Amino acid sequence: MSRLPSPNLKNPVHLLAFGFGSGCAPVAPGTFGTLAAAALYIPLSWLSPPLYLLALGLVILAGIWLCGRTSKDLGVHDHGGIVWDEFAGYFVTMVAAPPGWQGMVLGFLLFRLFDIWKPWPIRWLDRNLEGGLGIMVDDLLAGIYALVLLQLSYRVWPW
User: Fold this and answer.
1) Closest CA relative to residue 83, chosen from 145, 38, 125
2) Which residues contact 1 (CB under 8 A, 6 or more apart)?
């Protein structure tokens, strides 16, 4: 098995795309990227809903460019260490999330479930879209699936 190229973490584009280095984890970089996203979610959760959605839109738009640029720089489409898409997907999951650590943990677990499982059409999109949008869209959709289940679970069993 060939070794994937390493990012230049002194390059701010690579640093962001690799989730401040969390994507450099030797195993499960997507999970480590989502853990880093969860840490960043804490201050984001203090924003009003409109400001949170604005920040989310900026994360998504920046992510399309960051992931596409880094992928091109490294010559690998959707390098496993590129985890900005996990940041965006987790932040989608957490839109209007229930308060408290339980919502953060359940959101984390649901997002990782859908990001790994990739039910239809997530897997199809992951395999058929190129560039930064292709890297981002499967995680955004996984985030939407997780968001729906997180919201439903809270309405059925509020904590």
Assistant:
1) 38
2) none
Residue 19 sits at the vertex; the CA angle it makes with 148 and 39, to the nearest 5 degrees, is 60
Tokens of 58: 């900026």
Compute the distance between CA of residue 47 and CA of residue 28 in angstroms, rounded to an integer. 30
Check residue 4 and give its pLDDT.
Answer: 82
In angstroms, rounded to a whole number, what is the distance separating the alpha carbons of residues 78 and 71?
A: 6
Give the span between the Cα atoms of 10 and 13, in whole angstroms: 9
What would the pLDDT profile of 70-91 be if each residue is shown by its tens digit?
A: 999 999 988 999 999 999 999 9
Between CA 69 and CA 104 the distance in angstroms is 30
In angstroms, the CA 108 to CA 94 distance is: 9
Q: CA quadruple 100, 42, 13, 81: dihedral positive or negative?
A: negative
Alpha helix (H) ranges present in 4-130? 12-17, 29-44, 49-74, 84-93, 101-117, 122-128
**Helices 49-74 + 84-93 axis angle, to 10:** 160
What gap in Å lies between CA 83 and CA 8, rounded to an integer? Answer: 15
Task: Give the Cα separation of 86 and 101 in Å (integer).
Answer: 19
